[in-house]
Amino acid sequence: xxxxxxxxxxxxxxxxxxxxxxxxxxxxxxxxxxxxxxxxxxxxxxxxxxxxxxxxxxxxxxxxxxxxxxxxxxxxxxxxxxxxxxxxxxxxxxxxxxxxxxxxxxxxxxxxxxxxxxxxxxxxxxxxxxxxxxxxxxxxxxxxxxxxxxxxxxxxxxxxxxxxxxxxxxxxxxxxxxxxxxxxxxxxxxxxxxxxxxxxxxxxxxxxxxxxxxxxxxxxxxxxxxxxxxxxxxxxxxxxxxxxxxxxxxxxxxxxxxxxxxxxxxxxxxxxxxxxxxxxxxxxxxx
Length: 287
Known about the structure:
globular; alpha/beta; about 50% helix; about 290 residues; TIM Barrel
């Protein structure tokens, strides 16, 4: 990818925040987000682990990099990728950065949990690593990237495992190790409001866009607001409702004609028109 695209994304984050980043598991969703004017997309480990039914803990670097590559191949949407715990120690983090930077992502999130990651992360049971170990992983990530505009987001689970003040201290330490953005997980409105004020650099938030209106988000002080849940749960709920109805011998809520019309629009969104043009130019008589 053109390094100018990463530089532009960084400048927007620093000057315009918050950038609104929704769930984005595949290229079709990325093209939709791009069409709707979102600032970027989020390829989350939790969402990918659910879609593969293996948990985030059992994802491989290959699976994550392939998903990122597929998105970036067909969309110019800036992509933030959840790198989890980096699949191991600082050496493994180095490989993670190599692969995801080559895939064309704009930002990589790394968190301070044990490696290998544990499946119980999904039920909010987390195990932090010592600060010094995380600092070593972040320094390795900084050294591994070729493009200095590739954003490194350092995430801590210390709010839930230690205290809000401890999380603030960890985030400041992560800035000193080279993190461009930090992320912590506030437990209430007071902490959510305080975090950007207490930290010395850009802060990202995992949340639901529905919690606040546009003006409130603008005034929140966050640089990145990431919604990893709404898109996946909305899609799954609609799918389940339709299939449950059909399995019960009932029509789904969407008339058949409407479904076929959406299917046609999806082809347009996917960019099939350019493929049709190639076929017409190379296979049809008289061309």
